[in-house]
Specification:
SIR2/SIRT2 'Small Domain'; 27% helix; protein-malonyllysine demalonylase activity; 6-stranded parallel sheet; Rossmann fold; histone deacetylase activity, NAD-dependent; binds adenosine-5-diphosphoribose; binds zinc ion; 11 strands; 320 residues; 2 domains; alpha/beta
Length: 320
C-alpha cells in the first residue's frame, strides 16, 4: 500500500543498523552514489545549503562555461581555492570505509562519485571501481582545444592565482559592486573582469586558449567512457543495494542512478545530515534505509561487518 502523500520518508524507511547489516551481508551487487557531504567532515564545503557560498558568490553560479567566458579570473580564483582546500584536506573514515568495501566486494561494488576533490583517490580504493562522473579538480583542460593535463597538483596552479586571503579579497573588490552576485548579475557585461585573462594560465598546445579546471560544469556533457563503464556494470545483473551518500541528489544525470538502481531491484540506503531534502532518493520505501548524520561517522558503523578490522587500512595514499 502506498503511504499517504503527507507521510515523510523517514517515517517509513528503516533506521536500524542491525537490519542494514543483514541486507549488506546478503547483497551481492552494491553501488554507491556519493556527493559533497561525504567530504564535509574533511573540511570541504558542499554546494548547496549552508556551505554553498564562496565569498559573496553562489558556488553553483561559478561552475558554468558562461561564467568562465565572462570572468575566467573569478572562476579560477574559486577553483584555486577549492584545489588548495582539497590538497590540505585528508580523506575521512567514510572514504576509507568505502575503500574497504570496494576491496572486499571486488566487481560487486561500484562507487559513483560526483566529488572532484580527489579524496577517495587518496585511500586504497581500487581505481577501477571508482567512477568520477564530474572528473577532478586536478585535471586541467584547454577552453579552446582538446589539450588535457592529468594530475596537476600545483598549489597555486599558476603564479597569477595565489590564494592567500588578502590578495583574493583585493582582486574581488574590483570585480563587482554587487555584493550578492548571482549568475545573472555577474554575467552583466558591465561587470569588470577580476583578472586580466592575459595573466591567466594558457594552453601549451594551441597557445591562445585559456586553461580551465577539468571538472564537468553545468550544461556540459559527462565523460562518455565513464558513463559507459557505469552502464555496463548495471547491465551485467540485478543490483541489491544503492548507498546514497551525502548528496542532495538534485543534479542529473548523476541523481538518475538512484532510479536506475531501483529498476535493477535495489533497496536504497540514504546517508545524509538532512533527512528532508533527498532529491531523487526521496520516496523511500519500507525496505529502504535512512541514516541521518555525518557520513564519516555512519559509514564505518554501517559497513563494519564487511570490513576486516585487522587489515583495514586508513593509510593515506599520497599524491604523486
Ligand atoms: N554527512 C552526510 N551528508 C552531509 C554532510 C555530512 N557530514 N554534510 C552535508 N551533507 C549533505 C547535505 O545535507 C546535502 O544533502 O550532503 C549533501 C550535499 O549536497 P550538495 O551540496 O548539493 O552536493 P552534491 O549533491 O554533491 O552536488 C552535486 O552539483 O554543483 C554540482 O557538480 C557539483 O558534484 C556537484 C553536484
Ligand atoms: Zn589549447
Amino acid at each position: 500500500m502506498r503511504p499517504p502523500r503527507s507521510m515523510p520518508n523517514h517515517a517509513i524507511a528503516s533506521t536500524s543498523i542491525d537490519e542494514f547489516h543483514e541486507v549488506l551481508r546478503t547483497s551481492k551487487r552494491i553501488v554507491a552514489l556519493c556527493g559533497a557531504g561525504l567530504s564535509a567532515a574533511s573540511g570541504l564545503d558542499t554546494f548547496r545549503g549552508a556551505g554553498g557560498m564562496w565569498r559573496n558568490y553562489q558556488a553553483t553560479s561559478l561552475a558554468t562555461p558562461e561564467a568562465f567566458e565572462k570572468d575566467p579570473g573569478l572562476v579560477w580564483l574559486f577553483y584555486g581555492y577549492r584545489r588548495h582546500k582539497a590538497l590540505q584536506a585528508k580523506p575521512n573514515m567514510g572514504h576509507f570505509a568505502l575503500a574497504e568495501l570496494a576491496k572486499k566486494k571486488g566487481d560487486g561494488f561500484m562507487c559513483i562519485t560526483q566529488n572532484v576533490d580527489g579524496l577517495s583517490q587518496r585511500t586504497p580504493h581500487p581505481r577501477s571501481q571508482l567512477k568520477l562522473i564530474h572528473d577532478t579538480l586536478f585535471d586541467l583542460k584547454c577552453f579552446s582545444c582538446d589539450y588535457r593535463e592529468i594530475d596537476n597538483f600545483n598549489d597555486p596552479v599558476h603564479p597569477s592565482l595565489t590564494i592567500d586571503d588578502e590578495s583574493v579579497t583585493a582582486r574581488l573588490a574590483g570585480a563587482s559592486t554587487n555584493p550578492f552576485h548571482n549568475r545573472i548579475a555577474f554575467l552583466d557585461p558591465a561587470t569588470p573582469q577580476t583578472i586580466d585573462p592575459a595573466e591567466l594560465p594558457h594552453c601549451p598546445k594551441c597557445t591562445h586558449g585559456l586553461l580551465r579546471p577539468g571538472v564537468v560544469w553545468f550544461g556540459e556533457s559527462l565523460p562518455q567512457d565513464t558513463l559507459k563503464e557505469i552502464d555496463d556494470w548495471f547491465d551485467q545483473d540485478r543490483v541489491d543495494l544503492i548507498l546514497v551518500i551525502g548528496t542532495s541528489a538534485a543534479v542529473y544525470p548523476a541523481a538518475g542512478y538512484v532510479q536506475i538502481a531501483k529498476r535493477h531491484g535495489a533497496r536504497v540506503a540514504v546517508v545524509n545530515m538532512d533527512k528532508d531534502s533527498l532529491g531523487s532518493a526521496s520516496n523511500l520505501r519500507k525496505t529502504d534505509f535512512l541514516f541521518q548524520g555525518d557520513a564519516a561517522e555512519l559509514l564505518p558503523q554501517m559497513l563494519g561487518p564487511i570490513r576486516d578490522r585487522r587489515k583495514a587500512s586508513v593509510k593515506e595514499v599520497k599524491f604523486k
